[in-house]
Every structure is written in structure tokens, then in C-alpha cells.
Write a structure and sequence with these properties.
The protein has helices spanning 17-25, 38-41, 48-67, 79-90, 104-119, 142-151, 199-211, 217-220, 227-230, 235-239, 245-258, 264-286, 307-314, 321-333, 338-351, 357-366, 372-382, 396-403, 408-413, 422-425, 434-437, 446-464, 468-477, 482-490, and strands at 2-7, 30-36, 72-76, 93-98, 124-127, 170-171, 174-175. By secondary structure, it is of the alpha/beta class. The chain has 3 domains: 2-127, Rossmann fold, CATH 3.40.50; 199-283, no CATH class; 291-461, DNA Cyclobutane Dipyrimidine Photolyase, subunit A, domain 3 (Orthogonal Bundle). The structure holds flavin-adenine dinucleotide.
Length: 501
């Protein structure tokens, strides 16, 4: 029987269980499909830069699959008509895919596909893509289940096989083209200087990190400029599945065996973040609504929505050089280090008191590594809407002076300020006529805005921390790992889960 492998966020040939299973079950009778569904791509979180990355990844996959006698078809269509076309042209088939831990929209779509297949007596088999568990009975079991999944042997890419049938160029709406320009209504514009998709680049980037860059990881992780080189820079490859998390974990653990003891801490810190990756995605798997609903209802309705404020933040025109550099870096490259992401969310949601949803969607479009489970958990955490994480209101001036003291990052992305001496770069309004430089004055009095935000948020948090809802959320989504577990066991549910300083 024909085996149809449905690609989603797993755009690779190595360690790809659905592909391996399909080839084992019916060698020579396997086709691979990538379906760009308009309802998913036009929903507002995905953008043209993601589509561009997907097309690049598929182009490389198509070459490898071709060598193995497996065709790659794409379609710009919804799932049901596409499946109907496969049934009509090719007869009965088995559908194989990785589970998708996505937004309410992708969860609902997967349920529809299950129903469609079942109602026609066709089998749809799904496999976990990394360390997240569907229907996890309780958070207590997360760690064990993660460890088990990460220890499984890696799978090879499909071997060369003889195709049993002639594959046509078109099985409308499926076609062999890898161009999605006819998919209209996807927000954003293509990225000209970001990371490019494909397993080869993904592997090269990761190998280079393990060989050399990882030795500076912890020292540079919070530095906006240095982090661009010293962080692993694998998030986009993990988000779109160019790399398998299992492979990254196993290779990192091997590297840890041979690294000099003085450098171990860097790799250990990196390895713990691989665990966080799945920890956060498990949240959206357990409750997809966190993409749209304020996690802790005590924080609902606290903030406003103002178009002008939002646009100034989005376009990097706030008058705070580090915030503006961060937003412009995102627009130009699609990447920002962790602290920068936390800071821009804290600025719009706390300092400027704007609701988290619109910024979350805008950032999802900008982050090339947009991964719904990490993204919405982190945005809500940094916006202080969980009730069980500490509320952190970043001071962009302090961040700028501490982490970009010489202004290398600011100068790179805010050319209006490039010529200023470092001492003036962080608070330029104190020293120069900004109108002459074409740069805005600060849009708020930072000290006053942060004071008001702190008062408002802490008064709600004071009530929220004792509420049953906070306990329920912590129980459902909180980490059970080492240090945090001990802290939590010893005190109240408002304990900080991760305090990033
Ligand atoms: C508001 C906000 C939104 C974010 N949205 C995303 C997102 O959509 N996609 C995404 O991959 N990461 C997201 N992160 C987490 C983090 O900023 C990025 O994973 C990291 O900057 C990616 O760069 P890297 O691959 O060089 O990471 P490294 O620091 O080298 O870490 C290696 C890997 O560990 C994982 N990781 C690192 N930090 C975290 C973290 N805090 N939480 C969960 N996993 C982590 C990622 O998979 C990353 O690729 C977000 C953070 C914040 C504060």
C-alpha cells in the first residue's frame, strides 16, 4: 500500500521516524508531501520569512529524496481536498506524520485529518517529534519520558530504493514545484540576511558550535552582539525540524565527554536549555489555548491596546537605543538573544502596559525560529501573566550599559546614533539634539512608567499568588527539575520557576 509521509515542522531526512517507517513498510511505494494550508499560513502568526525558510529546506530535501527514488509533492491547499486527491489518483494509502505541538488551529486541523482518514477506513499514524509527550498523565513524568525519548537510537536517512511506480508531475492539487508564491495573504516580507533553511547548513552550524563557539557560550549569552556568534544559533533549525532534537542532545553529550573541564559549564548550560525547549512546548501540548488566552485570568484586562504605541515599538522608534536596535535586528535578521527577547516583551507589555497578544503575534512573525510552545509560554512569562513566575520589568538603560557598553549592537542596527561616543549612546537625549540625527526622543519617562507598572502588576500578583488558579497552573505547567523543585517544595506556589536575572 502507498505510504504518504506528511511533512510539517520536520524538514529533514535524518532521524525522521515517519520516513523510515514508511520505507520499511512499503519500500519503493512512498511519497512525501508538504501542504501549505492557506488557513494556517494566513492565521497571523506565520509569515513570509517562514515560508521562505520552508521552501529552502524542501529544496534540499527534494534532492536527497530524489536520490532515494521518493517523490516530494507540495500543494497550496487545505488538507481534506489534498487527501481526497491522493485517494482518487493513487488509491488507498497510509498517512504517516510527526505530531505537531502547535496552536489551537493546528491541533483542530490534526483532529479533522484523523476524522477524515478514519471515516474512509484509512490509517493515520503519528510519532512524537522530540521530547514532548501527548496525553502526558502528569508533569511528574515529563523528565523520565524526555530522557527515554532522547536516548533512543538515531535513525539514518532513507537508503536508495527502486521506485515501484512512475510518479506523475501533477496529482492536482499536488505538484512537484517548490514555489509558494501563489500562496497569498501571508504577512511580512522575505528576509534578505537571515539564516537559510536546510539540513546541511543546520548540521554545519551545530558542528561549528560544538567544535569552537560553545566555549564562549555562557559568557556571551546575554550580550546582544557577541551572542549572535557565541550562542548555538540552532533554534530555527530545531523549530522547522532541519535538526532532530535527539541528535542535538546525543551529540552534545558526546562532546561533553571530550571537552576540557574548565569549559564544561558552557556545554552543560547549553544542554539544560535543550531540556527547556521541550519543557515549554509540553505546555502548549497540554493546553493549546495558552496561545490565545491569558494564562492566569487575574491578569486579564489589565493592559490596553494603543496603535501608535504598538507601531513605535514594532518599528524600533521608541527612543530607547537598545530596544530599537533589538526590534530592528529582528526585522533584519529574524533572530535575537534570549535577554533581548525578554526585554522587548517586558517593555511593550509592562513599561508601556500593552496587552501581550498583539506583540506576541508580531514577534512570532519576526522570529525565524518561531516555535509556538516556547514562544507563547515565554511571552506570557515575560509579560508577567502566569502568576507563578517572577514579574521582571527590564530597565533598557541598565541592560544597554551592562551588556552593550561599547554600543557595538546599537551601532549596527541604529545607524542614526553610529557616530556618538559610547558614553552618550545609551541615553543620547541627554547629550545631543536628536531631531538633527533623525532619531526620536524617548516615548515615555522610563522611571515613572516602570514605577506605575510595578505597582499595578504586583498588586494583582499579590492576589493571584494565593489563588487556586495559580496553584493549578503551577501544578500543570511548572518545572519539576532539580533546584526549582526543591525551592517549590519548600515554599509557596508563586516561586520563581526560572529567574534569568
Ligand atoms: C519572549 C520570548 C520568545 C521566545 N520565542 C522563541 C521561539 O519562538 N522559538 C525558540 O526556539 N525560542 C524562543 N525563545 C527562547 C530563546 O530566546 C531562543 O531559543 C534562543 O535565543 C535561540 O537561540 P539559540 O539557538 O542560539 O539558543 P541557545 O542559547 O544556543 O540554546 C540552544 C537551544 O535551546 C533552546 N532554548 C534556549 N533558550 C530557551 C528558552 N529560554 N526556552 C526554551 N528553549 C530554549 C532552543 O531550542 C535553542 O535553540 C523565546 C524567548 C523569549 C524570551
Amino acid at each position: 500500500m502507498l505510504q504518504v509521509v506528511w511533512l510539517k515542522r520536520d524538514l529533514r531526512l535524518h532521524d525522521h521516524r515517519p520516513l523510515v517507517e514508511a520505507c520499511l513498510r512499503s519500500p519503493g511505494n512512498v511519497m512525501v508531501v508538504y501542504i501549505a494550508e492557506p488557513t494556517i499560513w494566513q492565521a497571523g502568526d506565520l509569515s513570509v520569512r517562514h515560508l521562505q525558510f520552508v521552501a529552502q529546506s524542501l529544496a534540499e530535501m527534494a534532492e536527497g529524496l530524489h536520490d532515494s527514488g521518493i517523490p516530494l509533492y507540495t500543494a497550496i491547499a487545505e488538507m481534506e481536498p489534498t487527501l481526497a486527491a491522493i485517494l482518487e489518483h493513487c488509491g488507498t494509502f497510509r498517512l504517516l506524520a510527526h505530531e505537531e505541538h502547535g496552536t489551537p488551529l493546528t491541533f483542530a486541523r490534526d483532529l479533522r485529518v484523523h476524522r477524515w482518514m478514519r471515516s474512509r477506513g484509512l490509517e493515520f499514524v503519528e510519532y512524537p517529534p522530540f521530547g514532548v509527550t501527548r496525553r502526558l498523565p502528569s508533569r511528574e513524568q515529563f523528565q523520565m519520558s524526555w530522557e527515554q525519548k532522547m536516548s533512543e537510537p538515531l535513525l539514518s536517512a532513507p537508503a536508495l530504493s527502486q521506485a515501484l511506480r512512475e510518479w506523475p508531475v501533477e496529482l492536482r492539487p499536488l505538484r512537484r514545484a517548490l514555489d509558494f508564491s501563489e500562496l497569498h495573504g501571508v504577512p511580512g516580507i522575505p528576509l534578505s540576511s537571515g539564516q537559510k533553511g536546510g539540513e546541511r547548513l543546520a548540521r554545519a552550524t551545530f558542528a561549528d558550535f560544538l567544535r569552537d563557539r560553545c566555549t564562549r557560550y555562557q559568557s556571551h549569552i546575554s550580550k546582544p552582539y557577541d551572542s549572535m556568534h557565541s550562542c548555538a544559533r540552532i533554534s530555527t533549525y530545531l523549530a522547522w525540524g532541519n535538526l532532530s532534537m535527539r541528535e542535538v542532545v546525543q551529540r552534545s553529550r558526546q562532546a561533553l565527554q571530550s571537552i576540557a573541564p574548565s569549559r564544561r559549564r558552557h556545554l552543560e548550560a547549553f544542554l539544560s536549555r535543550l531540556h527547556w525547549h521541550c519543557h515549554f512546548i509540553q505546555r502548549i501540548e497540554d493546553d493549546a489555548e495558552i496561545a490565545v488566552r491569558t494564562m492566569n485570568s487575574a491578569f486579564e484586562g489589565l493592559r490596553g491596546e494603543n496603535e501608535e504605541i504598538f507601531q513605535r515599538w514594532l518599528e524600533g522608534q521608541t527612543g530607547f537605543p537598545l530596544i530599537d536596535a533589538a526590534m530592528r535586528a529582528l526585522a533584519q535578521t529574524g533572530w535575537l538573544h534570549f535577554r533581548g527577547r525578554a526585554m522587548v516583551v517586558s517593555f511593550i507589555c509592562n513599561t508601556l502596559m500593552q496587552d501581550w497578544r498583539r506583540p506576541a503575534q508580531a514577534l512570532a512573525q519576526l522570529f525565524l525560529d518561531y516555535e509556538p510552545g516556547i514562544h507563547f509560554s515565554q511571552v506570557q512569562m515575560q509579560a508577567g501573566t502566569t502568576g507563578f513566575n517572577t514579574i521582571r520589568i527590564y530597565n533598557p538603560l541598565k541592560q544597554s550599559q551592562e551588556h552593550d557598553s561599547e554600543g557595538r549592537f546599537i551601532r549596527l542596527f541604529v545607524p542614526e546614533l553610529r557616530e556618538l561616543p559610547s558614553a552618550q549612546l545609551h541615553e543620547p537625549w541627554k547629550y545631543v539634539d536628536l531631531a538633527m540625527l533623525g532619531y526620536p526622543v524617548p516615548m515615555v519617562d522610563l522611571t515613572e512608567a516602570n514605577r506605575i507598572a510595578r505597582e499595578r502588576l504586583w498588586s494583582v500578583r499579590g492576589r493571584a499568588k494565593v489563588a487556586p488558579e495559580t496553584k493549578r497552573l503551577l501544578n500543570k505547567h511548572g518545572s519539576r527539575s532539580g533546584k526549582q523543585k526543591n525551592r517549590r517544595q519548600s515554599s509557596a506556589p508563586e516561586q520563581i520557576e526560572f529567574d534569568f536575572g
